[in-house]
Amino acid sequence: MTKTSDTIKLDQFLKVIGLVDTGGQAKMIIQNEVVSVNGVLETRRGRKLVSGDRVTVDDQTFEVDLDNL
């Protein structure tokens, strides 16, 4: 993925890292309240992430690095 922006939406990030295959799957896990961003529960799939943000799904944590997506 080529960097075209300084942000990425939460649902897109979950797809890019391979955690889900579709936007629908991303929407479901976000709405099921198992996703947090920087330690805070997040239920908005359009939440904009920046490099350095930490996304946790269940017990897996991923750091956003927009330069290497």
Automatic annotation (TrEMBL):
Keywords: RNA-binding. The keyword Zinc does not apply. It comes from the Bacteria. This is RNA-binding S4 domain-containing protein.
